[in-house]
Amino acid sequence: RGHGFRFVAAVDIAPTTNAAPAAPSPKRTALALLPFDVFSSDAELDYLADGLVEDLTTAMARIPGLLVISRASSFAYKGKRPTTRQVREELGVDCMVEGSLRVVAEQLRINVQLIDTHNGGHLWAQQFDRPMADIFRLQDDIAQAIGQVLEPAVVRESYQHVRAQISDRNAWLLYQQASGLLAVKGWHPDTFAEAVSLLRQSVTLDPTYGPAQAYLALILALGHRIGLLQEREAARTEGLRAADAALALDDTDSTVLGFAGCALADLGHAPHAMPVLDKAIEQDPSNAQAWAARGAAQIAAGAYATGVADLRHGIKISPLDNRLAVWGSFLAIGLMLAGQRDEALDTARTACRRDTRNHIPHIVLAATLLAAGRPKEARGHVAEAYRLHPQLSATEIKCLVGRQAAEGIVGMGAGGDAKG
Length: 420
Known about the structure:
single chain; alpha/beta; 6-stranded mixed β-sheet; 10% strand; globular
């Protein structure tokens, strides 16, 4: 007989009266914006280039009829030279934007090309020379130029800045550094602590910068929920404060809404979180993080079918995302709770392969195997989870997979010994 499996989340979700936004049509033209090449050893220019691509991704996602692959997935190609065919096959896109950045005589020069991935042909190319101080205005020019090729309707509209000029550029650079840490270094206590430190510096330099406040809230909330930060209750208090501050600063930016909404759900304020996540998706239907966060929250509320659908959609529009191991873990939980055991096992195994440094999918796969009555197989994944995260506690496991499954996993321990 299998062990019980019940997903317990640190949230209390009230039923929502508004229907969730419908998933975007899969027939829309699909676009990927690849990381820009930076011909300089200056790390600051690298952060500027990454931020520019992020802003352009957000701007392009607002074009009607266009499906934009998320920045997190496109950035899997950073430092690489993928072929147009490779990008088309791996991301499922019809066209892609690539570019380069260099400094020429105190000017910032950006070359951008729009390429048809079906034949490798250039649809559009342009060079932009601007003073370094005008970096935040560049996205207006490039976004409108690309939009004129991809969507005639955009010719009649003028783009507003995706990002308002912030008072201290160093605050923005600190946010850029923090945003890539988990992808580069993995989900570990020291990585979370470093990200929190960078984000605290950012919001100290510019308390009005919404994205940094929102991402600080998200990292604190995740660290609190899965035990990757010390002083968990202090992290919870600070996370709630940062989420509220972010929403007070900017409740229209999809990235801010997605981060803050996820943080609120993880910190037990889901009735407030769900409309925030709904709005994040309405503002930017290509925001994979918001889809995944809403899916996980709905699964925790017992809305398994809609939660699974949202998570699947988030994964679909960001197929190379560095967070797929975590998103896949929650998808596996939802499938198991919905009675789709075989698919849950396959999904959990895939999540384990997505990030070999992350302990979370191994805990979920172990719980799924226990529920399927396969404790021998589960034991190996429990051992691997403890190897990856030696300080793994019973509380963390319970937060992920529920009390009953956690008891079976903790009983196995790293090598048969219980851990508390």
